[in-house]
Write a structure and sequence with these properties.
This protein has 10 helices and 10 strands. With 235 residues, the protein is of the alpha/beta class. The chain has a 6-stranded mixed sheet with strand order 6-7-8-3-9-10, sandwiched between helices. A 4-stranded antiparallel sheet has the order 2-1-4-5, covered by helices on one side. The chain has helices at residues 43-51, 73-78, 96-102, 111-121, 123-127, 138-150, 168-182, 195-201, 219-224, 226-232; strands spanning 4-11, 20-27, 32-36, 56-63, 66-67, 81-84, 156-160, 187-191, 204-209, 212-218. Helix 7 (168-182) links the parallel strand 7 (156-160) and strand 8.
């Protein structure tokens, strides 16, 4: 069994139609797994189901062998799961350091040590620690969002479109930071539109189509799969 697993998940939002259908996604610690697919394929829905943001009609969510299917999102966070949404993922009117402190609201620990660990991972944030986050570049704001999510020392980090709206250079930098986080033995699950670049840094990937697992394999296998290339990677 994988460290974090959404197994045969079926469900949607409210009383609406099912968006994911018997969809399975797994990730181990120290591993990057990408969820890919066309718009409307259910990528973010699968991730949000694992976080508890929608009710599943069937399927189970487990972390480290423990069934958390019936836990609230807040209680899943207490189990070591951190989530960085695509938008509204920082407090623009607060400083970098204040944003990081907000990430540790569940903890009764030495914040200075936790913040210093984040500054080791993201040196630019130490330089900007007293600056308002709203004044930072898009890439720097994403580093703040990542840093804040890491303040609880999660075992699982979930990223929804971490490179949305940034330049190719910033995208490469962010992926470098995500690799750094992986090396701290965190399980990283990300939804990403930049499929080629995501697969280049991913240990494994899933391609969803209409809410179902269509292809899965290592990052390299999916990059080299002619069906995946022609349908999702532009040739």
């Amino acid at each position: 069994m994988a460290f974090f697993e959404g197994n045969k998940m079926t469900g949607g939002y409210g009383n609406g139609p099912d968006i994911i259908h018997s969809c399975t996604v797994t990730v181990d610690r120290g591993e990057i797994v990408s969820i890919l697919g066309p718009n409307g394929a259910g990528k973010s829905t699968a991730m949000k189901a694992m976080l508890g943001l929608l009710n599943l009609k069937s399927g189970t969510i487990t972390i480290d062998g423990k069934d958390i299917s019936n836990l609230s999102p807040q209680d899943r966070v207490k189990q070591g799961i951190s989530f960085v949404p695509q938008t509204k993922n920082v407090f623009a009117g607060m400083t970098v350091e204040e944003n990081l402190e907000m990430g540790a609201f569940l903890l009764d620990k030495n914040l200075k040590k936790l913040i210093d660990d984040i500054f080791d991972l993201f040196p630019i944030l130490q330089e900007k620690r007293n600056q308002l986050v709203g004044e930072l570049s898009g890439g720097q704001r994403q580093q703040v969002a990542l840093g804040r999510a890491l303040m609880i020392k999660p075992s699982v980090l979930m990223l929804d479109e971490p490179t949305a709206g940034v330049s190719p250079i910033v995208m490469d930098e962010l992926f470098d930071h995500i690799i750094k986080v992986k090396k701290t033995n965190v399980a990283i699950l990300m939804v990403e539109q930049n499929a080629k670049q995501a697969l280049n840094i991913s240990d494994r990937g899933y391609v969803l189509v209409t809410g179902e697992n269509r292809y899965s394999g290592t990052g390299k296998e999916l990059l080299n799969d002619s069906r995946v290339r022609s349908s999702f990677l532009g040739g």
